[in-house]
Amino acid sequence: MKKILILLILSLIINLINGNNSCNRDYECGNYPYAACNGGLNLGYGIVYNSNDNKLIVSGKYNSSDSGPFGYPYIFSLDTSATNNGSEATLVIKSRINGEILNTGQGFTTFYRVYQYAPIHNYLYLTFYHSGSTIYGIYDQATSSIKQVLNIWGIPFTIDFNKEETKTVYGEYGIYFIDKIPTEKSDFSNSTLLYQNQITNGIILGDDSKNIYISTYDGKFYLGTTDCRNCTQDKLKLLFTDSNVTSISGFLLVGDMIYYSNENGIKAFKKDGSSSSPIVLTNDSISSMTTDGKNIYYIVTGTTTSSFTNNAVVKSIPIPKVINGNITTETPTIIYTPKSDHQCQCAVGFQGDKCQTCNGKTLWNNGIPLCTPIDSETGYPQTCFTSQDCSNSQYINCNSNSTCACLPGFTHANNDCICSNGSIVWNNNYPSCIQN
Ligand SMILES: *[C@@H]1O[C@H](CO)[C@@H](O)[C@H](O)[C@H]1NC(C)=O
Ligand SMILES: *[C@@H]1O[C@H](CO)[C@@H](O)[C@H](O)[C@H]1NC(C)=O
Ligand SMILES: *[C@@H]1O[C@H](CO)[C@@H](O)[C@H](O)[C@H]1NC(C)=O
Ligand SMILES: *[C@@H]1O[C@H](CO)[C@@H](O)[C@H](O)[C@H]1NC(C)=O
Ligand SMILES: *[C@@H]1O[C@H](CO)[C@@H](O)[C@H](O)[C@H]1NC(C)=O
Ligand SMILES: *[C@@H]1O[C@H](CO)[C@@H](O)[C@H](O)[C@H]1NC(C)=O
Ligand SMILES: *[C@@H]1O[C@H](CO)[C@@H](O)[C@H](O)[C@H]1NC(C)=O
Ligand SMILES: *[C@@H]1O[C@H](CO)[C@@H](O)[C@H](O)[C@H]1NC(C)=O
Ligand SMILES: *[C@@H]1O[C@H](CO)[C@@H](O)[C@H](O)[C@H]1NC(C)=O
Ligand SMILES: *[C@@H]1O[C@H](CO)[C@@H](O)[C@H](O)[C@H]1NC(C)=O
Question: Which residues form the signal peptide (predicted)?
């Protein structure tokens, strides 16, 4: 009896030393909603392969144990090395994503999906929603935030790099080429138009950096080349048609085969265009897929919780083998089922052992607090939901980037906005500072 007690106390001490704040319910973490216990994991969209460490990269956000999504979205690495002997892959938090603004206003910013990984440059491309548009960006490891690269205005956007990460093809309204991989908006302004007017929902730049494989909304797959300049669509060579495929969630080239996925499964055809019917790998509904060249890893479509899915699992299926000219497919296996890590998490921006400290201003959305720092230069909070969050001044506004800014003509001074050298004119209850 004594021994058990001593062991219990010892394990408690070890847990304290290790900082093990393992929990099962929100109340164990202190004061909800400033702190919560991680419950179910909602996987984000997108899965990519990191050839540097042989691991997969996925994203997700935990629920609180008693409620919905809580805290930061995370980038996870998924180690599949134990899956070949029947164990599930292990999920480890790689980093968190700062900068989500979950208010109901116009500055709404939310992480959407992991898009692509460039292992040589160590660039992780992501997409997020901001003020009603989809933005293609790069995850900046220094600030754990997403740097905007391109605003995607409604037209379907697809992109791929060559293996050496020196060339890019992308589809917008047309197929374009860039002589590098993009890190900022200006890289897209300096692109070369290869094919006019062509809309794509999947694009691959082949290993030779010359062949371009595209997929279209009418289920046609074409071959193009980076040598074309402002070519018309009839210069694309039709490789394969699957008229059942009006959307695709993944598009891969492995060996001699092109793989495409959607809600009806993963199918494949020969890249030389000699297939008459598709090879079916699985009928699972696929929300995204990637490959390490030996297996295809995919996320099965779950139900949706905002930008995240639940009930989604990660599966693996070997690339089909060709034996005596016959293609043999195998069955997929589940390699990861999302689970809780039983850790306490502070609401975004809060600190302290009970997450009670906010070095800044507390903003509220749907009963969940957000702690935003005060900008030392302006005296305004770095993030705002309403103009009242900024200051008592009636000449300040919380703009569509959820940042505080003086109304046009007004200048910032002492935590206020003033109309120096001018006069304030009110029009429809809206003040303007008109210079004298
Ligand atoms: C923390 O506690 C959990 C559950 O009690 C246990 O599974 C885990 O191994 C512990 N971790 C450490 C670092 O002690
Ligand atoms: C997270 O919470 C939401 C809302 O309560 C729920 O719909 C969803 O199923 C939960 N997800 C997981 C993975 O438990
Ligand atoms: C499975 O393989 C992993 C790594 O290859 C190893 O760490 C683990 O012990 C193995 N598990 C079993 C049950 O053999
Ligand atoms: C634009 O691209 C061309 C080659 O495609 C390159 O020579 C030129 O330096 C680029 N210009 C800028 C401003 O990046
Ligand atoms: C491409 O060709 C069309 C005519 O077919 C022309 O109107 C357009 O300006 C050209 N675009 C570029 C970028 O060269
Ligand atoms: C398209 O779907 C129909 C009905 O489900 C099926 O008979 C046909 O084989 C499919 N075509 C292809 C190319 O998969
Ligand atoms: C896909 O579904 C069809 C029709 O239900 C079935 O005949 C086929 O075996 C399935 N293929 C795979 C790979 O599960
Ligand atoms: C390949 O397929 C043919 C026709 O379906 C069959 O007769 C042959 O036995 C297969 N060969 C192997 C090695 O499976
Ligand atoms: C919001 O931020 C973007 C990118 O930083 C900038 O281009 C835009 O002008 C900003 N909008 C406002 C209203 O400040
Ligand atoms: C106001 O006028 C002064 C003196 O002419 C000038 O230095 C200052 O920049 C002006 N301020 C604004 C906001 O125009």
Answer: 1-19
Judged by DSSP in three states, 78 sits in strand
Cα–Cα distance for residue pair 34/143, rounded to 1 Å: 23
Rounded Cα distance, 328 and 386, in Å: 59
Amino acid letter, 200: T
pLDDT at 436: 75
Residue nearest to atom 2 of ligand 4 (CA): 190
Residue 139 CB partners (closer than 8 Å, separation 6+):
75, 95, 97, 123, 124, 125, 126, 145, 146, 147
Closest ligand to the CA of 175: 5
pLDDT for the residue numbered 47: 97
- Rg from Cα positions in the chain: 25
pLDDT, tens digit, 9 for 90 and up, residues 186-201: 999 999 999 999 999 9
CA dihedral 308, 312, 317, 319 (to 10 degrees): -20
Q: Is the CB of 22 under 6 A from ligand 1?
A: yes
Q: Please give the structure tokens belonging to residue 230.
A: 């402002």
Q: Residue 253 has which token pair?
A: 């080239």
Ligand 10 pocket at CB < 6 A: 411, 420-421
The answer to whether the predicted template modeling score (pTM) of the entire model surpasses 0.85 is: yes
Q: In this structure, what token pair is assigned to residue 316?
A: 């693996």
Pocket test for ligand 2, best of 59, 310, 341, 345 (most atoms within 8 A of CB): 310
- The pLDDT score that the predictor gives to residue 302 is 83
Residue 399 Cβ contacting ligand 9 at under 6 Å: yes
Output the six-digit token pair for 293: 């060249």
Question: Of the ligands numbered here, which is closest to the C-alpha atom of 41?
Answer: 2
CA distance 163 to 119: 9
pLDDT at res. 106: 76
Residue 340 CB-half CA count within 13 A: 20
pLDDT of residue 304: 76
Which residues of the chain carry a pLDDT beneath 50? Answer: 17
Cross-strand pairs, 259: 252, 268
Domains of the chain are 23-344 (2.120.10.30), 374-435 (no CATH)
295-300 and 286-291 strand pairing: antiparallel
Question: CB of 283 closer than 6 A to ligand 7?
Answer: yes
For residue 371, what are the β-bridge partners? Answer: 362
Core vs surface per residue 60-99: b (16+ CB within 10 A) or e: bbbbbbeebbbbbbbbbbbbbeebeeeebbebeebeebeb
